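the two lines:
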Amino acid sequence: MNTLSDEILNKYIDNELDQATLLIVREELQRSEEGRKRLRALQLVHNNLKNMEEEAVSSLFTPMLMKKIMKKSKSKKEQRFFILSVSSIFVIIALGILSYIVSLIFAAPQSTGGTVSGAQEIVNIIENLVTPIKNLLKGANISAIGSVFSLGLLISVYFVMDLIKHKDRNLSRQH
Amino acid sequence: MKNLTDLEVIKSVKKGNQSDYEIIIDRYKNKAFSLIKRMLKNEMEAEEVLQDCFIKAYDSLNNFRMEAKFSTWFYRIVYNTTLTRLSNKKRKIESEMSSVEDHLNLESDYDFKSSEKKDLSEFIKKMIQKLPENYSLVITMFYMNEMSCEEISEMLGTSVPNVKVMLHRSRNALKDLMLSNNYVMEVL
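prediction for all of em together
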């Protein structure tokens, strides 16, 4: 084995030699001027690499990037707020409709006296449920429901467009 | 604030102090930039990719396990994002990363001018650019990004001995060049 091979000298610099080999290498280095020269050169390379200066980005890099990040996180917050508001409105409307139906059911005239068969009772319940819905879909109510659906449609279109816009932006950034 | 560890800064960012992310950016921007520039060989593009990397890291901070080392996690994002950029440009790095059996023949295509010999560090910097891409990457990761051979091997998807071989060969190539140009005699 060449005691002063490049491999050994590299391991010597990296402190990767075992004690026995280390002693042999040190002895060999004392004897060989050529070996010392190669080691010095290798150490010089190692030290220069260790102290190598980093490549520097432009001075505006950090503020510009922070501005981007802040803007992005702000728009995320706004989006979350928007979704929350829209869903709250939907929940309120749904609750309103539900309470309206329930109130109509309770306000509907109850069957009078006598014993009612089980089947008749089911028919009554279904009638009580269907009649308010029928009433709800009549006249001015239908326009209110139409408005709610239009609003829902508009919101869905907004999100779809937003999604397409994001996809386009990601694609253009990749290319 | 600047003396905080990476993990402390990240904890603070996660708590909602977004402006603290600036500390992380300042800490890693130049090191990561060096790595990206080495891979892309284009300064403008490197800065653009670096921005993407920081934004990606910020968006994924919730996925970062606090017991891991932030630098390794971040450099992995940097390396993968740059590789994606490279593959998008059909300049696959794999073609140059195939084997550690590559021959390092740097002398043939380097023109030594007396002015360049004045500054050894400048000379070494120039020579690193002439190394095959995987060798210069290993040198950059090891010396500039202060990554261990294990971390580099994990990132490059190669074995630790392979990384060491690449590291040694790069140093040897640089050393041989210095010797053949009497650099050592002049400097020492």
